[in-house]
Write a structure and sequence with these properties.
Blueprint (H helix, E strand, L loop, with lengths): L1 E5 L4 H12 L3 E6 L7 H9 L7 E5 L5 H8 L6 E4 L8 H4 L1 H22 L3 E7 L23 H20 L3 E6 L2 E2 L8 H11 L3 E3 L6 E2 L2 E2 H12 L10 E6 L5 E2 H12 L5 E3 L15 H7 L7 H13 L7
Parallel strand pairs: 1-2, 1-4, 2-3, 4-5, 5-6, 6-11, 7-10, 8-13
Antiparallel strand pairs: 9-12
Nicotinamide-adenine-dinucleotide binds next to α1, β2, α5 and β5.
C-alpha cells in the first residue's frame, strides 16, 4: 500500500508515519512545516525517516489543492491518513484565518484528492473539541455536537459534515477520529504538560486555569497510533453511507492538578502555581466513551497518565536543549 500521511511532521503524524513504515508500508508525507510551534521540532521528527527509501516528503500547504494533486500524482496513493490541521483551541481566538485555511480549505482539498484518486479509505483527525459545551459525560459519538466553544472545535465539526457529504455524494469511504488530549515524547509545545515542564525546569510559575478545576481524558500517543492504524485497516463496509466516527480517548479523565503532581514527582521539583480563571474557548472537562472504538477497532488504551508522563519526562531529560 502507498499511504498519504498529511501533517507527517506533526506530533501524531510523525508517530503514525513511523508505525506505517515499520510495518512495511510506503508513505508519502506532506507538511508545510509552519511556525505555529518550533519548525526545528518538526524537522527533528522528520529526520527519523531521512534514510528510509519507503518514505517520500513533500513540503506543501494542503490548501494549495492543485500543487497537492500535481506533486502526489506519481505516487499511486491507495489510502490517506489526514492529520494536518491548525491545532490548538486558544490560538483560534488569535489567528482564526489559519483555521479556515488549514482546516476548512485544507480538508476540502484532501476530500477532492481522495475522490479523484478513488482511494480505498480516507481516515481523518477530528477532535474532542466537537463536544464543546456539552455537559453529559462521558462524551458519546451519538450525542449532538451543536455547542462549539471555539472556532477550532467548529472547524473540526465542519470537517465531519464535509466528510459526510463526500461519503454520500461519491461513496468515498471515510473514518473520522475524535482524539482526546494526546500527549507523549516529542509532543506539542503548545500543550499544558509541555508548557508546565519547561516553566518548572526554568523555576517559573505556571498558570493553572479555572483554579485547577479542569479534567482531561489524557491519551498516550502509542494508544492513539494503535487506534489510527486499526481504523485505517478497516474501511467502512456494508450498505449505507460509508462514513464512521469514533472517539479515541483513554476513558479515564484526570484532574489537571493530578497532572501537575505527576510532573512534580518526575521532575523532582515543586510547581509554583498561579491559579487563574477559565480561558475563553476552553471546556472544564473531557471524557471519551470508547465503546464503539473498542467494539469495531479493538481499541484498548494501555498507558496510564503516570507511565506516559514518566516517559515524557525521561525523553525531555535526554534533550541537550529545549526546542524553541
Ligand atoms: N494532539 C491532540 O491532543 C489532538 C487532539 C484532538 C485532535 N487533534 C488533531 O489531530 C491532528 C494532528 O494533531 P497534532 O497534535 O499532531 O498537531 P501538530 O500541530 O503537531 O501536527 C499538525 C501538522 O500539520 C501541519 N500543517 C498544518 N497546517 C497545514 C497545511 N495547511 N498544510 C500542510 N501541513 C499543515 C503542521 O505543520 C503540523 O506539522 C490535527 O488534525 C489535530 O487537530 C490533535
Amino acid at each position: 500500500m502507498t499511504i498519504l500521511v498529511t501533517g507527517c511532521a506533526g506530533f501524531i503524524g510523525s508517530y503514525v508515519t513511523r508505525a506505517l513504515l515499520s510495518r512495511g508500508e510506503t508513505v508519502i508525507g506532506v507538511d508545510n512545516l509552519n511556525d505555529y510551534y518550533s519548525p526545528a521540532l518538526k524537522r527533528a521528527r522528520l529526520q527519523q525517516f531521512e534514510n528510509d527509501k519507503a518514505f517520500q516528503f513533500h513540503e506543501i500547504d494542503i490548501a494549495d489543492h492543485e500543487l497537492l494533486r500535481e506533486q502526489t500524482k506519481p505516487a499511486k496513493i491507495t489510502s490517506i491518513i489526514h492529520l494536518a490541521a491548525q491545532a490548538g483551541v486558544r490560538y483560534s481566538l488569535k489567528d482564526p484565518f489559519a483555521y479556515s485555511r488549514s482546516n476548512l480549505q485544507g480538508h476540502l482539498a484532501i476530500l477532492e484528492l481522495a475522490r479523484h484518486l478513488s482511494v480505498r479509505h480516507l481516515v481523518y483527525a477530528s477532535s474532542s473539541s466537537v463536544y464543546g459545551a456539552n455537559e453529559a459525560v462521558p462524551f458519546k459519538e451519538t450525542h449532538a455536537c451543536d455547542n462549539p466553544v471555539s472556532l477550532y472545535g467548529a472547524t473540526k465539526k465542519s470537517n465531519e459534515l464535509m466528510s459526510a457529504s463526500y461519503a454520500r455524494l461519491y461513496a468515498l469511504p471515510q473514518t473520522g477520529l475524535r482524539f482526546f488530549t494526546v500527549y507523549g515524547p516529542m509532543g506539542r509545545p503548545d500543550m499544558a504538560y509541555w508548557i508546565f515542564t519547561e516553566k518548572m525546569l526554568r523555576g517559573e510559575p505556571i498558570e493553572v486555569f479555572n483554579h485547577g478545576r479542569m479534567g482531561r481524558d489524557f491519551t498516550y500517543i502509542d494508544d492513539i497510533v494503535d487506534g489510527v492504524l486499526a481504523a485505517h485497516d478497516r474501511p467502512p463496509v456494508g450498505d449505507g453511507v460509508p462514513h464512521r466516527i469514533y472517539n479515541l480517548g483513554n476513558d479515564r479523565p484526570e484532574a489537571l492538578l493530578a497532572l501537575i503532581e505527576l510532573l512534580e514527582k518526575e521532575l523532582g521539583l515543586k510547581a509554583q502555581k498561579t491559579l487563574v480563571g477559565m480561558q475563553r474557548g476552553d471546556v472544564e472537562r473531557t471524557w471519551a466513551d470508547i465503546t464503539l472504538a473498542r467494539r469495531d477497532l479493538g481499541f484498548q488504551p494501555k498507558i496510564t497518565l503516570a507511565e506516559g508522563i514518566s516517559r515524557f519526562v525521561a525523553w525531555r531529560r535526554g534533550l541537550a536543549a529545549p526546542f524553541v
